[in-house]
């Protein structure tokens, strides 16, 4: 008689793995003398269980190869601010990969103009037709040369310490997905010179949230999560910087994958490829591919760790507002796809193969251009 062996699903993996990365913290402190979740160069570092205090300079000896991947769709204006933030980085051992997901007009010229001050390698990949955020990020992963990849949206003005401190973390840890935070703002602040304004972590909903009573924001795997009447949460602190979020634990309406947002993510390239990258089945519809990516990583035993000093200004797009009912319907569709994915075998996903070809010279030294082969 043949025995049937059940294949572990993504949900099984989420329930089996904890997220207590205390041992990683201790090893990181032993190697660097720094606290994994409390590093800052200037000003007070966010309070936390492992506070080491602010740093007075960028640590020496950072050698981790880093690729910064930015997926964009008709985002040339905000992309200029994102590239400006990368120009000001204190540590320069990184490359920039911009994936133009079917923008009209193409963003290549905008990248050349806005990134004229970048002294790091730049690669621009053009998709003639929009494939969606998940596919665009996977194409960036395909091109990326760094062993560490930082994913950014095209409307994030990052702090000048971002690349260096994330490279330091990844250089001295294994199996960690680091998440950043955002402070929504308008164009006057977003496009201001660096140092004029300081983003505040408490404006990110994961730090202080008052959205607990909104049923449509449910992101957990279980539709029947117990009712929660609370309307205010401090998710980072309540979960001990995500350590208590493992094994399927829920706080209010949120679980560990819900802490993962694609606007600011940092992972080892090999880890991201091993889980199949970002799910592409969401195509151009309203996303949740970042939520799914977080679930795949956590279910594979990757720790999800906040980087509290990584707070970026996010440009509000006033003209993109949609009716609340439409937003609700899109989110519900995305979450339905997400929950179906959670019940599939964890091992069935494979990293998509995207064929690229090099195009004519970009017109500036240090810039390479590619296009997706249909």
TrEMBL record:
Spans traversing the lipid bilayer: none
Domain Glycosyltransferase 2-like: 67-169
GO biological process: single-species biofilm formation
InterPro entries: Glyco_trans_2-like (IPR001173), Glycosyltransf_2 (IPR050834), Nucleotide-diphossugar_trans (IPR029044)
Coiled coil: none
Name of protein: Glycosyltransferase
Organism of provenance: Streptomyces telluris
């Amino acid at each position: 008689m043949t025995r049937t062996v059940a294949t572990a699903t993504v949900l099984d993996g989420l329930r089996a793995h904890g997220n207590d990365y205390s041992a990683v913290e201790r090893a990181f402190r032993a190697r660097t003398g720094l606290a994994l979740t409390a590093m800052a160069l200037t000003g007070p570092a966010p309070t936390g269980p492992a506070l080491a205090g602010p740093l007075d300079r960028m640590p020496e000896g950072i050698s981790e190869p880093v690729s910064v991947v930015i997926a964009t769709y008709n985002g040339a204006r905000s992309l200029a601010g994102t590239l400006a933030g990368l120009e000001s980085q204190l540590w320069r051992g990184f490359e920039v990969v911009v994936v133009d997901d079917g923008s009209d007009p193409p963003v290549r010229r905008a990248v050349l103009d806005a990134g004229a001050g970048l002294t790091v390698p730049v690669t621009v990949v053009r998709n003639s037709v929009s494939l969606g955020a998940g596919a665009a990020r996977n194409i960036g992963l395909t091109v990326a040369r760094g062993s560490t990849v930082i994913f950014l949206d095209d409307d994030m003005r990052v702090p000048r310490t971002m690349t260096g401190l994330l490279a330091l973390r990844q250089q001295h840890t294994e199996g960690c997905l680091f998440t950043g935070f955002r402070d929504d703002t308008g164009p006057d602040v977003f496009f201001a010179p660096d140092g004029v304004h300081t983003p505040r972590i408490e404006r990110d909903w994961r730090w202080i949230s008052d959205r607990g009573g909104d049923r449509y924001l449910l992101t957990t795997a279980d539709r029947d999560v117990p009712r929660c009447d609370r309307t205010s949460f401090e998710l980072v602190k309540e979960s001990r910087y995500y350590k208590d979020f493992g094994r399927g634990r829920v706080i209010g309406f949120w679980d560990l994958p819900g802490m993962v947002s694609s606007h600011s993510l940092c992972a080892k390239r090999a880890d991201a490829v091993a889980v199949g990258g970002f799910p592409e089945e969401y195509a151009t519809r309203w996303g949740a591919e970042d939520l799914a990516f977080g679930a795949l990583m956590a279910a594979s035993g990757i720790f999800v760790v906040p980087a509290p000093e990584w707070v970026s200004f996010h440009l509000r797009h006033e003209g993109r507002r949609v009716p609340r009912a439409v937003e609700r319907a899109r989110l519900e569709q995305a979450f339905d796809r997400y929950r179906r994915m959670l019940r599939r075998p964890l091992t069935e996903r494979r990293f998509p193969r995207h064929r690229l070809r090099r195009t004519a010279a970009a017109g500036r030294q240090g810039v390479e251009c590619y296009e997706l082969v249909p």
